């Protein structure tokens, strides 16, 4: 079974692209969704122990946690040391299930794939991209997002140009949903046809 890593900078349309693969019947694992589940479960007491006051009602308050770690490399590294191993566990279980179900390929939706060395865990990488203007408009339209927060997030991510240069596939999500859907279908068809080397 082939594994496709799906990634892209904030506001580039990664989640929408993941949904397009899922609509084609492709198994998709979202690292973000895994983190949401973990923040309401196994990770919550671990996060609270390291960042007291960031858990409310047994669930990590993402806004409170973000305020503690954004822009603080040591704090962010401490959070990643808690969360990343738990996400990897879920990822491995997902891939085993997809392989067991006979899927020709599966998608790992990983926001910081290159930044965390995740390309070593996949057979190919798909980067979603859009123009800086489209990206900025999408991100600043999100509730609670500010220009300063957007700038801080961008600073923590690998530049889009570098991601595109390192990708096996690139989809421009700024060209509209239909164009993106067609591009996803082409990538899916290629990966379904791919046969492992003997």
Task: List the SSEs and their pairings.
Elements: E1 2-7, H1 14-23, E2 28-30, H2 31-39, H3 43-50, E3 55-56, E4 59-60, H4 62-69, H5 73-100, E5 105-109, E6 124-129, H6 132-140, H7 147-155, H8 160-166, E7 169-172, H9 177-193
Parallel strand pairs: 1-5, 1-6, 2-5, 6-7
Antiparallel strand pairs: 3-4
Helix pairs in contact: 2-5, 3-5
Protein name: Dephospho-CoA kinase
Function: Catalyzes the phosphorylation of the 3'-hydroxyl group of dephosphocoenzyme A to form coenzyme A.
Pathway: Cofactor biosynthesis; coenzyme A biosynthesis; CoA from (R)-pantothenate: step 5/5
**Number of separate domains:** 2
Which structural class best describes the helix and strand composition?
alpha/beta
Number of strands: 7
Estimated helix fraction: 40-55%
CATH architecture label name of the largest domain: 3-Layer(aba) Sandwich
Question: How much is the radius of gyration in Å?
Answer: 17 Å
H/E order of the elements?
EHEHHEEHHEEHHHEH
Give the low-pLDDT segments.
none
**Shape descriptor:** globular
The H-level CATH homologous superfamily of the largest domain, spelled out, is P-loop containing nucleotide triphosphate hydrolases
N- to C-terminal distance: 13 Å
Enter the CATH topology name of the largest domain.
Rossmann fold
Q: What is the helix tally? A: 9
| Overall mean confidence score, pLDDT | 93
CATH class of the largest domain: Alpha Beta
Instruction: Give the biggest beta sheet.
Output: 5 strands, parallel
Oligomerization status of the protein chains: single chain
Query: Could you give the order of strands across the largest sheet?
Result: 2-5-1-6-7
